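Field reference: sequence -> structure
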Amino acid sequence: MDISVSRIVRVPILPLKIVNAHLLIGSRGCVLVDAGLPGSLPRFEKALLKQGLSFEDVQAIVITHAHVDHAGGAAELREKTHAPIVAHEDDLAYYKRETPMTFCPTGWAGRMFLRTPAPHQSYTPFEPDVLLSNCQAFDLSQYGVTGSVKHTPGHTRGSISIEVGSKDALVGDLVASGILIGGVIRTKHAIRPPFEDDPRAVAKELLRLADDGVEKFYLGHGGALTVREVRRHAETLLTFPD
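Structure field:
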């Protein structure tokens, strides 16, 4: 059976590409990458219907990291789809809401954003069904999609990314694009997201993905980026002090 990825479809959680989730559509349904904010279920339903799919076609849910705009709808989506959640153990305490989320602002926008209620918004606790540890990789082929989930720390300790067979990668918040994060202007320009735990670790993971042959990077904030632009951004991050 052919399990190659046929489409990567963006799910607009907020307009202007300010917050994105994605569908990986394969031979036996699809895999959701990130769960959006709490209450995002109608946006996923609309995106699925547009592709001729329903919640019953969702085979798995991959959460790239524990921030509310990526993990906030996970518990609700699992209840609706009965699909397993895949995530990394280094963010487990945040998923279970046992530990308050920590934030390292990357600039004035992050510092201003941190003063608002938005990043501190609570969500329903959950425990992933498939919990990666250390540098363990997880093969998505059992869900009808050619792809591998890998640990890519730096944005958070438990950040993960998905490398798919078509030389694409979905990297969550390892990098963002556009001015003020979104699709207004400079949409092909890589920027740091509002929060980032370790920029040098991020740089190393982005360069590793590029060296692995990834040519296009799909983001949680902003439009997709080419490998050339991601390399430029990563090399800038490497100049930051340890």
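Note: The radius of gyration is 16 Å.
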